[in-house]
Amino acid sequence: MRCFRALALAAVVLAATLVAPPPALAVTTHVYPATRDTYANASSPNTNYNSQRQLAVAGSPDRISYLTFAVTGLAEPVLYAVLQMQTLDTSNAGSSDGGHVFLVGSSWSETTLTYANRPAPTGPALAAIERVKPDTVHDINVTDAIRGDGVVSFGIFSTNTDGAYYHSRENNKAGPALLVYTGVPGTDDTVLLAAGDIADCRSDRDEQTARVLDAEVGVIAAIGDTAYEKGAPEEYAACYAPSWGRHKARTRPAVGNHEYLTPDAAGYFGYFGAAAGPPDKGWYSYDLAGGQWHVVVLNGNCAQVGGCHAGSPQEQWLRADLANSPARCTVAYWHQPLFASGGRGNAAYRPLFQALYDAGVELLLNAHNHQYERFAPQKPTGAADPDRGVRQFIVGTGGRSLQPDFPTVAPNSEVRNGSVHGVLRLTLFPGEYRWRFVPVAGQTFNEVVTGLCH
Questions:
Q1: What is the signed CA dihedral for 51, 55, 61, 64, rounded to 10 degrees?
Q2: What pLDDT, in 10s, does the model give residues 221-236?
Q3: Does the pLDDT of residue 309 top 60, yes or no?
Q4: Based on C-alpha coordinates, what's the Rg of the chain?
């Protein structure tokens, strides 16, 4: 019986995974150890700490760490760069604030640097290290600092009195390192462009968001309610096709509730064809970033596909698909949200969220509410979980009229905007992702933040 069940699940996985993975992206990893590192201490402003086996970062009194790397041999474009720091294994090495990383000038000497002669930052912060744990390697995104070969120096500053302590290069096995990934980015392989609630013939807002897509490379995640009012064939032809439809070849859609106002969502499945998954299911998966990211697309119209409960066909397929994926990082999307500050969150999706959480999935994208909202990583119960939680976005900003109100701010909601149309741009790196909300022309709302894979 177990063998039959396993074979049945495998068959379901194969049947629903219709989108062929893109060609692998050739990425070269360059590793550079620190050539200089030390820290400065405001309580001893004329003391040099070059001989220490640790780097300290804290405030009141200020302790600032400095590092230099010599970057050579970069023959291809820089895709991504990581400053890798390991905290000491002592109980006091961790902190709720690991510091902020800045570029600094490189004219300082490791043997003479003190707090009195310390270099100042040369621009805005590159990244926040946030919470750090003892005896843990922490990857910090410093891509914006690496333009090619050359010497680069960083300063790590903090105003938090609870200090963080990292290994210095005097500890050869655990000292700081700079990892630079180079290659030629694929047009459809490392970027996911996402929004839902899109085409409405009564306005040109979907045309405005389509112009955002015109300027961006990447796979397009159309997260449901793609053609109003009911996803009829004539609405796809007259409303969706002239705008987002010009990017149909690179679109991987999810079905919304409005599509099912046409029986069996026949207009949706007829328009998108095999890219939408089997018409009796509407779920499927595919890979991005040369197979380093797995993408799962689900059908939130539970009553149409046998339910979304634990043990339902979709939930069983989801668990099997996630178990069969070798990718470290995963993003899922379907139309209707579990959590929402704008109302219309639906507990029916908790079993699907639970399956994502159990598998260590990083990201969930939804729409349905015509607004933008970002949540901190959380459990299916709604409890915060910064280490293993799923980060949920609502991106119902594709063109339909917006809903500016957020009646009850949900726990863990970090950012909300109900007045700007646009597209979420996810850039997918090895072990990390960066998101940016790209507004339509003439509107202002733009956040750029980075997250790590589990």
A1: 100
A2: 999 999 999 999 999 9
A3: yes
A4: 24
Tokens linked to 3? 């063998």
In angstroms, the CA 329 to CA 393 distance is: 16
**Number of helices and strands in the chain (H, E):** 6, 23
Q: Transcribe 195-241 into DSSP letters.
A: E-S-B-TT-SHHHHHHHHHHT--SEEEEBS--BTTT--HHHIIIIIT
What is the rounded (10 degree) CA torsion for 42, 46, 51, 56? 10
Is residue 344 within 8 Å of residue 385, measured between CB atoms? no
Give pLDDT tens digits for 109-121: 999 999 999 999 9
Residues 242 and 290: their CA atoms lie apart, in Å, by 31
- Across the range 389-397, mean pLDDT stands at 98
Rounded Cα distance between 43 and 191, Å, is 46
Structure confidence at residue 188 (pLDDT): 58
Is residue 356 within 8 A of residue 364, CB to CB? The reply is: yes
Distance set, CA 195 to CA 53, 148, 173, 185, 333 (Å): 48, 34, 44, 23, 10
Cβ contacts of 180 within 8 Å, gap of 6 or more:
29, 30, 32, 71, 74, 78, 80, 81, 82, 146
Q: Classify residue 95 by its DSSP letter.
A: B
The secondary structure of 279-339 as a DSSP string is TTT--EEEEEGGGTEEEEE----GGGTT-SSTTSHHHHHHHHHHHH---SEEEEE-SS-SS
pLDDT tops 60 at residue 394: yes
Tally of CB atoms within 10 A around 436: 15
Read off the pLDDT band of 28 (50, 70, 90).
Answer: confident
Q: How many residues does the chain have?
A: 454
Q: Which amino acid is at 410?
A: A
Is residue 242 within 8 A of residue 211, CB to CB? The reply is: no
Q: What is the structure's pLDDT at 26?
A: 56
Provide the pLDDT for residue 185.
53
If DSSP codes are grouped into helix, strand and coil, which group holds residue 249?
Answer: helix
DSSP state of 259: G
Per-residue 3-state assignment (H helix, E strand, C coil) for 385-441: CCCCCEEEEEECCCCCCCCCCCCCCCCCEEEEECCCCEEEEEEEECCEEEEEEEECC
Nearest to 394 by CA among 367, 414, 426, 420: 367
Residues 277, 255: Cα–Cα separation, whole Å: 10
